Amino acid sequence: MTTPQPTDPLGAVYAEWTEEFAAHPDMSLRLMRWVFEDWQRVTTEPEDVTYKSTELGGVPGILVRPLTADPAQVMVFLHGGGFALGSSASHRKLAGHIAAACGATGFVADFRRAPEHPYPAQLDDTTAVFDALVESGIDPADIAFVGDSAGANIAIATVLRQRTRGAGTPGVVLTISPWLDMENGGETIATNDDTDFLITREGLQGNIDRYLSGGASARDPLVNPLYAEFAGFPPLYITAADVESLYADAARLHALAAGAVVDVTFDVAPGQQHVFPLQAGQLPAADQAIATMAAWYRGRRSAGAHRRFAAPASA
């Protein structure tokens, strides 16, 4: 049987990385972080988007401003990379494409990374960004969390924690290839191993060990949202590829949210790689995925605005 080969730019990059990881099994975390900055190579530069290095709530990051964006709508982008890798630089172009399609401004947060800063530092930083936006006058309903892979975990867990505290939450949450199972038991890690050119169970476990090095349990719902109760969660968008190793996490998240009667949409991308929208501008499937996300976002915003500003019923 022929081993599947990459057919898209992202798959080719993942295959290159995998070769290097196999050739250098003792690669330092510092070097791995340099490698993952290469993520941005597969994303084209979006048109009519400006960037500014800044900070919100003491958290550094990159402000993303499409020229036609509504400054009152803010998308907080939480990058993937297993809680230890990736950065605002690796994801700023993807954020630019998504923010422009949605007509919003964005902030790509450089939350603290593990193992130097294990859980819950990432949730603390996301909360600090959210609070700073609200304090600046942004309505919480006009804030969206957008997370890919581990960033999706951070987005979901931050909302769950805010709910338990009785604090405000964003109006919507959008996730791409979410990674949630910190017990590392997802069945598609094995069944999709040949078609996912990046993810391995061993690599996932290394990042889990870094993230939980402070002693948190892999079954804590704020670490592993597959143990969480989703009733009352904001409208949730999920996209994942059917051949990626973390597909089971996305499917389980969808089932949990739907069972809790959350307004949830699950868009399954056939034959794509982990976080495939990173190929915006290079791959039609990535551009279509972002257009679909934007249509969902605009639809939920319109519905939310109608609920907030509808005239009260007459007596």
From TrEMBL:
Highest taxon, organism lineage: Bacteria
GO molecular function, one term: triacylglycerol lipase activity
Signal peptide limits: none
InterPro entries per the UniProt record, alphabetical: AB_hydrolase_3 (IPR013094), AB_hydrolase_fold (IPR029058), GDXG_lipolytic_enzyme (IPR050300), Lipase_GDXG_HIS_AS (IPR002168)
Keyword Hydrolase: yes
Gene3D superfamilies tied to this protein: alpha/beta hydrolase (3.40.50.1820)
Sequence ranges assigned to domain Alpha/beta hydrolase fold-3 in this UniProt record: 75-277
Keyword Hydrolase annotated: yes
Keywords of this entry: Hydrolase
Pfam family, one: Abhydrolase_3
Coiled coil (residue ranges): none
Protein family: Belongs to the 'GDXG' lipolytic enzyme family.
Protein name: Acetyl-hydrolase
